[in-house]
Write a structure and sequence with these properties.
Elements (H helix, E strand, L loop, with lengths): L31 E5 L10 E3 L2 H8 L11 H4 L7 H10 L5 E5 L20 E2 L2 E9 L1 E4 L2 E3 L3 E12 L7 E4 L9 E4 L4 E3 L5 E5 L2 E5 L9 H4 L20 E6 L1 H7 L8 E7 L1 E2 L2 E2 L2 E2 L5 E3 L3 E3 L20 E10 L2 H5 E9 L10 E8 L9 E8 L9 H5 L3 E5 L4 E5 L9 E5 L1 H4 L9 E5 L2 E2 L3 E5 L21 E6 L5 E2 L15 E3 L13 H4 L11 E2 L2 E3 L3 E2 L2 E2 L2 E2 L6 E2 L3 H4 L16 H5 L3 E4 L17 H4 L8 H11 L11 E3 L6 H14 L3 E4 L18 H4 L3 H11 L6 E5 L2 E5 L4 E5 L1 H15 L8 H4 L11 E4 L5 H9 L3 E6 L3 E4 L15 H19 L8 H20 L3 E7 L7 H5 L6 E6 L22
Parallel strand pairs: 1-3, 1-41, 8-31, 33-40, 41-42, 42-43, 43-47
Antiparallel strand pairs: 2-3, 4-18, 5-8, 5-15, 6-7, 8-14, 9-10, 9-12, 11-15, 12-13, 16-17, 19-21, 20-21, 20-28, 21-27, 22-23, 22-40, 23-24, 25-26, 28-35, 29-34, 30-31, 32-33, 36-39, 37-38, 44-45, 44-46, 47-48, 49-50
Helix pairs in contact: 3-17, 13-14, 20-21
Length: 929
Amino acid sequence: MSVDKFRFVSPGVFINEIDNSQLPRTPAEMGPVIIGRSLRGPVMRPVMVQSFQDFVEIFGEPVAGGVGGDVWRNGNKTAPTYGVYAAQAYLRNSSPVTFVRLGGYENPDETTAGSGDGAAGWKFNNAYGLFYMPISQSSTDNFVTNGTASAALAAIIYSSEAAGATGLTGKPLNGSLETVTNKLGTWVRAGSNLEVKINAGGTTSSVNFDENSKKYIRSVLNTNPTLTNNAVLENPALQEYFLGETFKSWVEKNNSGSISGDFAAVLVKLETGSVNFGNFKQEAQPAATGWIFSQHKGATGSWAPNGNGEYPVQKLFRFHGLSEGEWNSQNLKISIENIKEPPNQFVKFGTFTVSIRKIDDTDVNPQYVERFTGLTLDPSAESFISKKIGDKFTEWDYDNKSFVEYGTYANKSKFIRVEVVPEVESGETDTDLLPYGFYGPKVYTANAISGASGSNHAPFSFINTAITGNNNYTASFVLPEVPLLTSSADSVVPSLASLYWGFKTNVATTKKHNKDIVDFVRASPVNSAPSTYQFVFSLDDVSGSISGSTIIANTASVWTEGNRTAGTSITAQGFTGSDGSSLLLSKFNKFTVPLVGGFDGVNIIEKDPFNRRVLSGKTETTSYAYNSIKVAIESIADAEVVEMNLAAIPGVDNASLTSLLIEKCESRGDALAVVDLEGDYIPEEGKDSYSTTAAQRKPNVDAVVSSLKDRALNSSYGCAFFPWVLIKDDLSNNTVWVPPSVAAIGTFSSSQRRTELWFAPAGFNRGGLSGGAAGLPVLQTAARLSSKDRDKLYDANINPIATFPAEGIVIFGQKTLQVTPSALDRINVRRLMIYLKKQISRYASTVLFDPNIQVTWKRFTNLTIPFLDGVKARFGLSDFRVILDETTTTPDLVDRNIVYAKILLKPTRAIEFIALDFVITNTGASFND
């Protein structure tokens, strides 16, 4: 500081402190990008996590595989999630990890016309609906309906069998005692608990809807779609069908809440026009709510739907899951709570709370995942709903190969984003509007069918084909609708003020969770485009007993769509509180909304939808799985978008995709790709066919060496290991075969934590997998390598994972895939250079746009030299030199706004070969000679 900086007025001692000891800001840590499957989480978008706890909260726990049973309802846990194990291995010792969850993305130019492997999702040629209709006995063995009945959908069977292979067996309704066998479109009598005989998969089984019975339909019929995969299964394990959705509660609702009494059942093929209900060939998509709308401000008589089923109310907002897939819709629900009118004339907007709850909680004891309180529809307020929750989302741009971000406000919620209608966002709507209700999901309209006594009916389409006859019975097919609370008597809350109207997830009058809920909220078939809302829920339709300015608490209140139109609802009758406020909101100020339609976009018959068999020989236009992985790789290609120093797709050994990963790492220049190779162990889910033997799936040293040499790779930005290893999953207590990239990623993490990242992550000190170097317990290798095997592998630049009698399992190599001999053919040097380039480039960015003079140059060298000194002191470099002066940055370069520096480095080499001569001498020889 110059003396001129002091202000001298009167005599005294003037002191100033100058701190020149400040250290440059430590850059954020970098870690690997791992691409793979997980139970849940955002699809195809890189997400950084700092701990395994954070990872599990977003993406779920690792899956060991081998979990069968009711896969349709419980999720696909039949194959291991290798990418999650890699993330866990790395996070055990270091952080962060950036994870890209794979989902079904199809290329716009896919060549399979929306039906083959190029299209995302799954498809079965046949979807059969099992419907039940209440009946009554008019005479001995002759049953009719009382007028017009509704036949409620109770179950859907997806089948690849030939026509006529699936049907019902039983006695028809026409009075005949003769049993009909394996019929579609024929009504048969059902027994207790809706018991019928179903023919499926070549077997006739008696099934019912009693969860405690051995004949329970979900216990008897196949509910695992992966058992229908004829590419890897053959009889007797192969099934040609699986049971999907079941809706016992819908049948009960259709029969006044009961399944007692007499029922008829019919099995029909679910079709409508060109829509096959077994066609789910569509991309991954998030779950969403219907539009949430305002109170009705018009006259009672004007409360009626238009031709689109919409009411004269203002749409306000709706919610979308941040994560694509089924998990959000099957595990979460959203409640709008504490709806309050503006408190006085000076406050224009009311407030409300948005709560994200577990779907299986109860209204008595809500289990909150997130809560956003005091929200408003005032776009100028900090409490505006979009500002508090967030509204950003991204879409993949195939032309520019990047995600394009939309929205204004950062997402504060971990689970949802909000979409606000433009009128609300711009402040054009009335200020007193509040969320009062929501539009339900879309559904097909019912189709009336008639049946004749005395004939067995042929199969018929879902609609547009009638069964005609003497009209002994008539029924309308009705598809399931998301259940709603229709009476306070069905709730178990202690008071009306605790009541949540809307989406109902409990079994009537009990705290028991309705297990059918997961099937009510699933995605619709492709091209379904149903135009009718299942329902329109509004607090404006709630009625109740009123005494003065209060709602009588011990009298049941009800919700029925149309109560306001009929003039029977609380708001229709104009009741208000003693202070003129809404009487309705004094008691009923909360309702619950379902998240509906989430879809993973993958083929559910595959244990691992991205296995080696489905990728083999494919391109981005012929395989959605290939395209999805390619998009994931391209999403991390820009170093200014995603930070990383390692990259891996554990379990994917496809040559073109792993080469693409190496290419992207090399073009970035700041990451090392850890790839798995063809010729290694083949997991059961990836075998070529059901005839592939266990011996054919074992790793083969010669095959993996030959395959890699044929690829002619020569890059220091890639590395590979061999073979697969068996780990102990200490969360599930299972053993799991995982690809070598998992062990390598874990070893890189532990090695840099114990020493430095430029130390070789190999050998007995840092590569001892039996000693925990991988971050996960490693029990054995898929192949025990001999010394000759290790030589073959290392000569081909493949790093062996060897087993030694005393030391156990060890990573015994650290080569990159660079064939040209240089310091960069070793992993420790490549990782050192990635680290140095990244850190020094950050220092260089601090002088961008500063004057191109020696003072600025000195600032750069003052940052760089101490940093390199530190690396040298920690054995990363044996020597270095930084040159930035007039010899490098010449006047010509200065005129062109360029600074040019030379950084000369001598990386420290790792010891990989030790030569020892043991010389035997005569007794009288001197060791000093």
